[in-house]
Amino acid sequence: MTRVGIVVGLVLAAAATLGYVHSTEPDWYARMRYPLRYEEIVRGHARNYELEPALLAAVIYQESRFNARAKSESGAIGLMQLLPGTAKGIAVRTGGSRFQVADLYDPEINVRYGSWYLRHLLDKYDDDVNKALAAYNGGQGNVDRGVQYDETRAYVERVLELRGTYERAYPELRS
């Protein structure tokens, strides 16, 4: 066997082992590793927008690691990493009249707007979670044209994995 073959074999074995350990880690360890901050806000908006609480928690974790002050290089802000233009449109559609960019740092407002947007995407794509998550990450236009970047595919896979982790670690989040 060549050195490359040995290295590939070791990498695959390590990945399989890590996957096994990850899926069998104790709940207390998963809760420590994947915190659930703003639980009442998450559960309340999940209920209000008919979302799986674990899915909403997974999106927040992937987007910001539950950091309400997060800001990306592209200008996305807060827990659910909303762009100000998107958030302003959501504010208008949901009856808001005094939107300010600083509002996106407020966990309650950010999760409300992000939950509304995720529900909107799920409705648009007939509850296809993969397409809704792809649109959340990569834009509706790209999903509508059938374009999906590797980064978006990885995002969808990661959020779905995190959803499972949150369901296991926080049984109260199961729908």
- Give, in order, the helices and strands: HHHHHHHHH
State the end-to-end CA separation.
49 Å
Number of beta strands? 0
Share of helical residues = 55-70%
The coarse silhouette is globular
Q: Strand portion, in percent? A: under 5%
* Structural class determined from secondary elements: mainly alpha
Write the layout of secondary structure elements.
Layout: H1 3-24, H2 27-33, H3 39-48, H4 53-64, H5 84-93, H6 107-124, H7 129-138, H8 140-144, H9 150-169
Helix pairs in contact: 2-9, 3-6, 4-9, 6-7, 7-9
Summed up:
It is built from nine helices and no strands.
Report on the architecture of this protein.
Helix 7 (129-138) packs across helix 9. The protein starts with a helix and ends in a 6-residue tail after the last helix. Residues 7-21 have low confidence and may be disordered. The chain is mainly alpha-helical and 175 residues long. It is built from nine helices and no strands. Helix content is 65%, strand content 0%. It has helices at 3-24, 27-33, 39-48, 53-64, 84-93, 107-124, 129-138, 140-144, 150-169.
